[in-house]
Request: fold
Amino acid sequence: MQQFYSAGKRAIFAIDPKICPMIHTFNPTHYFNTLGSHPPVLRVSDGDTIITSCVDAAGGDAKGDKIASGPNPMSGPFFVDGAAPGDTLAVDLKAIRLTRAHGWTRNVLAQNVVEPHYAQELPDRYGPKGVWQIDTAAGTTTLFEPKTALGNLALPLNPMPGCFGVAPALGQAISTETSGRHGGNMDYNGFVAGVTAYFPVEAEGALFFIGDAHARQGDGEISGTGIEISSEMEFALRVIKNKRIGTVRGENSTHIFAVGNARPLDEAAQIATTEMSRWLMEDYGLDHFAVGLLMGQCVEYNLGNMFDPAYTMVCKMPKQFLKKLG
Reply:
């Protein structure tokens, strides 16, 4: 309960944060390159909304100044009262606001996404970066440098957090360069505003981190970057008590989806497929036969990160086939 005194009177009004969630604005003074049980930077109630600034993947802020070291410096961790191991943290992504007029990319395909003999033909990917102009009013990003046959290629914006998640189990601190069941550097371009992500809670308070915004990114992050940019993230954190999930899940207006983070790619697909199967059995009352029939004919897959140490595969189920279930 939060207490407020009325002006000129002795009355005390108690506000239940579950009835009236708070909105917190947080400006980081330091960042983390691992997701782990670090001291929380802010403590919030179940259901509260946080608005926080985030630097880009190399530590560049809204002015373009490098104020943190890479890879993928995270804002957080945010401690959620009541979250405990065995619960699920729901993260409602409300808004991803780009805070700079330019973003950057690498310009060459990563060697591990092509055949080995072809990789030998690729130029050095760590040369000069690509520069993209950002026009949030028009909703576009336009290639400025380098000058290529693409000319001034203009693409629609699709802002997303490349890296976000919770503290993993057993007091581990896992690099923001990779991902796992706790989330991390998944680089899935389906995590956009309006989506809810679900994470298994393994530490008291969940300890949620977010950052690494991309103005847009193709499937797989196959050049090793999206269009990297600073951002302001707005999200609500909700605790689902006594709901244990095995890995990251998500939901949008049309699909539910499960996220597998592992290497090789087939293991990532296995994790995502297993989690979807369990979700359909636990929440929609299906048995193995019904799951096999439904998933066998209706499932969809998307590729998240296939550049960094762990790959990401997303198993999706259209909600239109679930309307009469659960």
Observations:
- Residues 265-284 form the longest helix (20 residues).
